[in-house]
Structures are given as structure tokens and as C-alpha cells.
Amino acid sequence: MGKRVLLPVDGEEHAQRAYELARELFFGETYVLVHVINPADASVSIDGTMPSFPEEWYEQQKSHAERTFEEIEARAADDGIETERVVELGKPARKILETVENEGIDHVVMTTHGRQGVSRILLGSTAESVVRCSSVPVTITR
Question: Quick one: three-class SS letters along the chain?
Fold first, then answer.
């Protein structure tokens, strides 16, 4: 049985970079794509407007995740790489770590936003939390 590689995806550009690195390091393995919908982000929608209802915001987030999944899945199919998808609701680092355990993940490949200064202090770093707490190796790219 091959390795299972987790790719947390939170946007198309970041997902593409994580996919490229995973393809270089783990070509031919199974990629598990995870998107975490963070309720703390509900104050502003993807398009920068205020959602009228929490359900509307959640549906926008799911739709955004679907588009990102489809982009990566199309590339993976062209490369002959099998993918699976997972959508979670909660704090990103916690849900990524839970997915590692629940899905039998062997390695995580993810991007970092590269925040610095006050932004990093206030928002924290999902990548840093995953690296510190993961039970499997984690590879980070920018």
C-alpha cells in the first residue's frame, strides 16, 4: 500500500503550490485534500461582502472549496494521481491534525501564508501549529 499524503487547501494559489511540491516528493501516492471552513472567518465572505445569513456564508465556503478541489483533482488525474477530499468545520490546525489521525496520513505537505509581526501574533500560524503537533512529517512551502 502506498503513502497517503495530506494537502490542506485554503485557496487555489496555495493549493497549486502544495500540489506541485507533493508531486515532486510523492509522485504516485494518494493525495487527501482537506479544506477547513473556519467559523471565525464568518464576518467577511470570500468576495469581501458581509453574508446575510450564516448558511449563505457556509455555502459560499463550500463552493469555494469545491472549485479548489476540482482544480487540483483535474491536475492530479492528468498526472495519474489518486485523490480524496475531506471538508471539515472548525479551527484549521486542529482539524488538519485530526484528519492526519482519522485518514491514516503518512505525510503532510502544506503552504504557509508567511505572516510576520503583529499579523502573525494576532492570527497565529496554522502551519506552525501543525508542524509542532503533528504525529507525521510535515513539509512546508511558501
Answer: CCCEEEEECCCHHHHHHHHHHHHHHCCCCEEEEEEEECHHHCCCCCCCCCCCCHHHHHHHHHHHHHHHHHHHHHHHHHHCCCEEEEEEECCHHHHHHHHHHHCCCCEEEEECCCCCHHHHHHHCCHHHHHHHHCCCCEEEEC
> From CA 20, how far away is CA 139, in angstroms rounded?
12
Domain ranges within the chain, ordered by starting residue: 4-141
Residues written for the chain: 142
Q: Look up residue 12 and give its three cell numbers.
A: 487555489
Short-list 7, 3, 70, CA closest to 35: 7
CB 71 within 8 A of CB 18: no
- Please state which CATH number belongs to domain 4-141: 3.40.50.620
pTM: 0.85
Q: What pLDDT digit, counting tens, does each position of 5-60 carry?
A: 999 998 778 889 999 999 999 999 999 999 999 888 776 555 656 555 678 888 98
Label the pairing between strands 30-37 and 4-8: parallel
